[in-house]
């Protein structure tokens, strides 16, 4: 009975969606081909394993037996036996540990597209939190893996997910900048309009026949002012008619929620709600179709 701790050279370019081919080699150390011949008597049937055996990270898909010769310049040819294993890695653990949290962080970053563009603390804090969480996930995966010089499949997925989260932060930076520019333009237009239509008291009196001066005490006149009567009547009609729009607003509040959200958000947010999820779904489709 022999207990062996063997080593297998693995390629992690498709990790954790990889299938590894490992082999166990048996060879005589002292006797060459002239002294000892090694072969499998019944081929693959010579190998028998327990059906209930299992590994922590791999499924044993198949194993096969083969033989060959190895040449050493000092001693000659030696017979060598091979046991080849095809090992497929368990995916479920890595889906729960890496892929699923990354998906949630990307979808959480899309919530900022539905928040009011003027809520700067809410959107900035949400973006920074998702970026830091993605960095933590990537660091944890890299720490538990062997340090290799090539890119793994999980690195591709996490880095692209990180890019989506980062772009959501950049998207709000663009929205905030464009919103500031629009507000400045509107303020300039309002300033020009107010300067164009500003009138003094004499010009206003020429329009409606009433002298609009706050310094004059209108209570000194013994007779009622027709201008004041017109203003009171107008205010009473406005008060009586104000109840009807309020009731309509209360009734149509639920129907106007979507409209209010659209009005309070920039056009970039509107397009981002469609573009970001669509591109991410296409990326997942190609990713899982390529590696599985």
Brief overview:
The chain has helices at 92-109, 120-143, 153-196, 201-208, 226-251, 257-263, 267-291, and strands spanning 19-27, 58-72, 76-89.
Structure notes:
The protein is of the alpha+beta class. The protein folds into two domains: 19-89, no CATH class; 92-202 and 256-291, Neurotransmitter-gated ion-channel transmembrane domain (Methane Monooxygenase Hydroxylase, Chain G, domain 1, Up-down Bundle), CATH 1.20.58.390. Helix content is 52%, strand content 13%. The protein contains seven helices and three strands; from the N terminus they run βββααααααα. It has helices spanning 92-109, 120-143, 153-196, 201-208, 226-251, 257-263, 267-291; strands at residues 19-27, 58-72, 76-89. A hairpin with a 3-residue loop joins β2 (58-72) and β3 (76-89). The radius of gyration is 39 Å and the shape is rod-shaped. It is found in: Postsynaptic cell membrane. One of its GO terms (cellular component) is chloride channel complex. Keywords: Cell membrane, Chloride, Chloride channel, Disulfide bond, Glycoprotein, Ion channel, Ion transport, Membrane, Postsynaptic cell membrane, Signal, Synapse, Transmembrane, Transmembrane helix, Transport.
